[in-house]
Structures are given as C-alpha cells and as structure tokens.
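Re: beginner question about structure tokens

> Can someone show what the tokenized structure looks like for a real chain? I only ever see the sequence side.

Sure, here's an example I had lying around. Input first:
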Amino acid sequence: GRDGPAPWHCSSRSDVLTFHEVFIDGQWSNATGWMWSGFANTAVGSSLRILHMNYGIRIVNPIASSSFVPSFLNIHDLELEGFKTRALSVEAGYEFRITGSDINNLTGSNGNTDDYAVACYADAAGSMTRGLMISNTRIGDSRKSGLYSEGRGTQPDDGQFFTTS
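And the corresponding structure tokens:
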C-alpha cells in the first residue's frame, strides 16, 4: 500500500488486479473511474462499465521509473462512455489489450471539452509506453481523433471509428 514499503524496492507490489462486473458512474463529476498509478504485474477484467466523469481509465507512471510501471492489461466487454477529458488515457507502461468493447466521450454532453477517446502517450519521464492493442471495439464520439498514439506498437484491429474529426 501507499504507507508500506515502496514498490520500486520490490518489497511491496500488486501482482494481479481483477475486475469483473464492475459499474462506476461519476454523474459528470471531475473524478477518474480507474487510475492505475504505478506497478502491478497484471490487470484483467470483463464486464466493466465506467460512465460520465473526467477520465474513464488513466494509466500513469508517477515515480518516473523505467522498471516498475503498469504492465499487462487484458480486458474485454469494457464500456467507457461520457468523459470530459478522455475515455482511455495510457500514459505509461506496456502490453495493454482491450477487445469487444465500446469507448466514447459523448462529445457535447454536459459541457465536455474532451480531446481523444483513446490516447497513448510516450512516457518520456521513465518507461517506454508500448503495446496497446484494441480489437473488435467501437471508438469515437470525440472532438479530435478517436485514437491518438505516441506509443510504440499501437494496434487497432477490426474496430469501428465513429463521429470523430
């Protein structure tokens, strides 16, 4: 935990995070549905519904580590809908897989000033962001692109982009 030994010393970490049949509705707050901040070996899930807030899922590297970053996400049947900033923001880490999902910002809803439905940024402060694969997924309803990527190995496959610039 946050008060225990630091994860970058390998004495404390989360090995597997599992999410099944989770529903989070932010009611248009400035909250983030799921913030993955730091080291965990694996996150898996299905039937996730994250709706109506600032960010849906945000993955970051707060300690600018090149070794202890979020790694390996495997989610299917994910619904991210209605975000003021971004539905999915991958800002660090590697090997993220999302399949059979629906990711959108609901542009124009509740005063949204969103940019991208999905953004994958290079983590210049620490690790190299790489390996985002999104398949059989509907992405869009954003002010700019449905998908923006600076990361290495971003692979959209067999999906549908809608209502984007």
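Each token stands for a local structural state, so reading them left to right follows the chain. The chain has a mean pLDDT of 86.
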